[in-house]
Here is the input.
Amino acid sequence: MSIPPRQAAISIRGLRKAFGGQPVYSGFDLDVRRGDILAIFGPNGCGKSTLINMAAGLLATDGGTILYDGRDVADVRVGYVFQNYREALFPWRRAADNIRYPLRLMGLPKPEIERRLERLATSFRVRFDLHRYPYELSGGQQQLVSIMRALAVEPEVLFLDEPFSALDYETTLSLRDLLQAVLKEIGVTTLLVSHDLEESIVLADRLLMLTRRPTTVADDVPVALPWPRGTAALSSPDFVAIKARCLDVFQAAVAA
Amino acid sequence: MKTLAAPVAGAVGFILLWQVAVWLRVADPILLPPPAEAFTDTWAALVRGTLALDTWRTVQRTMLSFLIATAIGVPLGVALGAKESVYRSVEFVVDFFRSTPASAMFPLFIVLFGPGESTKIAVAAFGAALVILFNAAYGVINARRTRVLAARIMGASGPRIMADVLVWEALPQILVGMRAGVSLALVIVVVAEMFIGSTDGLGHRVINAQMLFESGLMYGTIFVAGALGYALNLLFLLIEKRFVHWAGR
Ligand SMILES: Nc1ncnc2c1ncn2[C@@H]1O[C@H](COP(=O)(O)OP(=O)(O)OP(=O)(O)O)[C@@H](O)[C@H]1O
Ligand SMILES: [Mg+2]
Here is the structure.
């Protein structure tokens, strides 16, 4: 899918990365439109985490460029949600203080910090006590706190690395519904890594299917389903058609 | 209450065994007096104030060396742990001196600090500082990588990550090191009080009582030293529970 440059929030050109001489990316290109949710789907070890970690500036590239409206990632406000919420939150701080932490780093005045905290709690319909420590919360509540912490800084780009993979199905469904509502409301450009095809389609404006290493794009699928996408959307003909196309591609390119 | 029953039963059993050994004349009564006599002698010494003063002096020396050890060991350990490559290069030296019996260092420290009070403090602080440093460094090295990355992506600078993440990640291990350090400081202080010109302290009292054949008092002093070590350990366990509420969860 080619996107006019002025609409591209993220623009990756000629990306290269190898581990111990084994290439993961050798000349990878990608453009992401502003406000789009891009789901990245691919087999274990194909380099999904590597891709978003390089994009988020957590991992050095071996070559190529990753630009945000022409800016380097260091000059962009980003949010990142880790797969393992247990190891990403600070257990010595209360949940609310975890969310306040990046705002204090930014040096925001106290009333503004509290205003953002309250607005997030409202958007995500938080009904548990944010004054608790993370280990006193359920897994779903902890991951919700991680998501709130990532969004608190009002990021220009949000990265989510398999955010639901450690949660049970029921929790995943409810968190997924909350997340899509909020992401679409604030319109933040999002890169979502997922292992779950259904989840990738439901949450995304566009689905990128990756091959095994050396990684290339197997298919680039636009997902033009109407928002919001509740449980009913999972059985709509359009959804089923997209899923069938993806499974075909998966069998042909990825599993081959 | 149930939790107290077992240790009390153990202690009573131990005293009974002692009494039985006295009845069976396992050893000369001069060397092994009955527990009641040991208790009366010790109580008398406490009331007279001499044993109380000895205990206080030992506590003072232990605490002073422990504080010095903490002030050096924690910051240095955290700093070394943050640069793992640097820590690896000094690891051997730290490990070597950590494994060296502190008593073997007495002559060296007497040369450096003279035969007085400062030598006792210095040796104990040296031993304890190495234990604390070692634990603090490992606490930092084993910090959860994800938390460091999370802080970095939220815009935390190097020093901020150190203060907001690494020190907290290492805190459980630092407290373990401090607990081991205070126990070691007590051991070294008591030994130093025996052999490096002393006029007070539990170590001095034990060896004095032994030379004067005051066996009751000797056992009592040993008991006080043991109780002191036990109490310090317990105190630090309570502090750990209180301050690292998140550990292991
Ligand atoms: N630090 C590293 N050192 C060496 N190899 C690495 C390193 N990080 C990743 N790799 C390798 O690079 C490849 C891509 O890893 P990556 O974690 O990006 O995969 P992934 O697509 O996220 O997989 P998963 O679905 O299991 O999360 C893997 O084969 C992995 O073994
Ligand atoms: Mg991954």
Remarks:
- The beta strands of chain A are 8-19, 22-33, 37-41, 63-68, 78-81, 157-161, 189-194, 206-210, 217-222.
